[in-house]
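Section 5: illustrative case.
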């Protein structure tokens, strides 16, 4: 039955491989269960409610991705989008969080309409192959800098933005050891290399006292008490909140498109024409996750770039996503265990997968400036601005402008031209 539904053998995978890939994916992104409540609680939302909403929204969206789109991609409330929700919309603009949740809900509905009508797929098709390859490598660099920051290998510096961390710190040394072990196991083609590395560093950190093991193992879940269906639509009529809805919509579209392209290329899902089959279904799963998440009480849900760790572990079908969804639901009972997995354990996985995703850059035509420079700006923009969406914006806008100035306007897809204008205006006037 599983084979008929998911086509596991056709994708060269097994049920055991899908389960292992799901565990790796979940462990790599489970930090969202802790971080999202910490961020959104600064708006006045109850942290306990946000924690439940985070797990439920992520589980439902990921389950839909697996069952309907049949892709091994995990979804959860997006980092960056939750910060925009908290610090820009609620904090700087003074919007009450129930009104902000209503803005997320409306953005999700618009997102869903764009998905089912094929508009988002048209956008995906309009992006040139060179930028799609750059997105894969850019996400790799983005994953790497996140991992190096979590490991303590790089830290912020007022003079140079970033600098080398303290390599004598026990946690950093343990993370480096995990990185080297993972890389060696991958070189030996050892199945489960990434999972072994994560679990190994976690256990060592617990035993040695570097990080705190869970004090309890079970907790009883409950539905959100204050955030469930707490949306306030009255404030959405103001022009100011129209821009908020559009901001949520644009960033979610670009983040999701970038993740689907990058991770899809890593898994071999993108066809020879640079298109992702069943893209509409994947986009719709993201949109449903955002709307349901708003009803439960969390910021927009998006496809997670950490899905690349599970893909590299061998996950190739929607069964991986179904298993990840199950772990999200299980986390409602086992949250203390999952949140006790330290960042120094998942950091090596992000760095290793980031390195492997750089393979996308090898096929770029680096001798053509009109193709190479936009691709480079796409790649470098993601880690330096800490945003997949910003990197894609750099690439699309520069690609269109350079083609126009070099007399190659015929090479620009009309949808890409419109998108470049919209993105440029959005960033200028937001």
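Designed sequence:
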């Amino acid at each position: 039955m599983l084979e008929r539904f998911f086509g596991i053998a056709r994708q060269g995978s097994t049920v055991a491989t899908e389960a292992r890939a799901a565990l790796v994916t979940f462990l790599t992104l489970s930090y969202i269960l802790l971080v999202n409540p910490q961020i959104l609680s600064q708006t006045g939302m109850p942290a306990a409610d946000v924690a439940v909403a985070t797990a439920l929204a992520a589980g439902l969206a990921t389950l839909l991705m697996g069952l309907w789109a049949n892709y091994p991609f995990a979804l959860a409330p997006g980092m960056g989008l939750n910060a925009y929700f908290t610090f820009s919309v609620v904090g700087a603009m003074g919007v009450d969080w129930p009104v902000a949740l209503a803005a997320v809900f409306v953005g999700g509905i618009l997102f869903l309409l764009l998905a089912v009508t094929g508009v988002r797929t048209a956008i995906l098709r309009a992006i040139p192959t060179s930028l799609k390859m750059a997105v894969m490598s850019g996400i790799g660099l983005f994953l790497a800098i996140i991992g190096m920051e979590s490991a303590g290998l790089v830290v912020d510096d007022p003079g140079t933005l970033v600098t080398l961390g303290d390599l004598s710190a026990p946690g950093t040394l343990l993370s480096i050891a995990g990185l080297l072990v993972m890389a060696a196991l991958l070189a030996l083609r050892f199945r489960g290399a990434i999972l072994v590395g994560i679990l190994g560093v976690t256990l060592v950190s617990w035993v040695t006292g570097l990080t705190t093991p869970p004090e309890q193992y079970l907790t009883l879940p409950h539905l959100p008490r204050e955030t469930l269906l707490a949306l306030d639509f009255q404030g959405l009529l103001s022009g100011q909140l129209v821009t908020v809805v559009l901001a949520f919509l644009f960033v979610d579209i670009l983040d999701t498109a970038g993740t689907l392209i990058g991770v899809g290329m890593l898994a071999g899902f993108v066809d020879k024409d640079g298109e992702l089959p069943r893209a509409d279904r994947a986009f719709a799963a993201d949109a449903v996750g955002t709307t349901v998440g708003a009803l439960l009480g969390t910021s927009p849900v998006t496809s997670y770039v950490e899905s690349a760790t599970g893909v590299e572990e061998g996950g190739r079908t929607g069964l991986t996503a179904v298993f990840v969804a199950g772990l999200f639901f299980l986390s409602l009972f086992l949250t203390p265990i999952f949140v006790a997995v330290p960042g120094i354990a998942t950091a090596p996985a992000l760095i290793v997968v980031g390195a492997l995703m750089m393979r996308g850059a090898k096929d770029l035509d680096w001798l053509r400036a009109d193709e190479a420079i936009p691709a480079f700006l796409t790649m470098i923009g993601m880690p330096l601005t800490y945003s997949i969406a910003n990197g894609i914006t750099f690439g699309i806008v520069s690609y269109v402008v350079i083609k126009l100035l070099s007399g190659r306007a015929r090479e620009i897809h009309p949808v890409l031209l419109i998108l470049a204008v919209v993105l440029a205006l959005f960033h200028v006037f937001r």
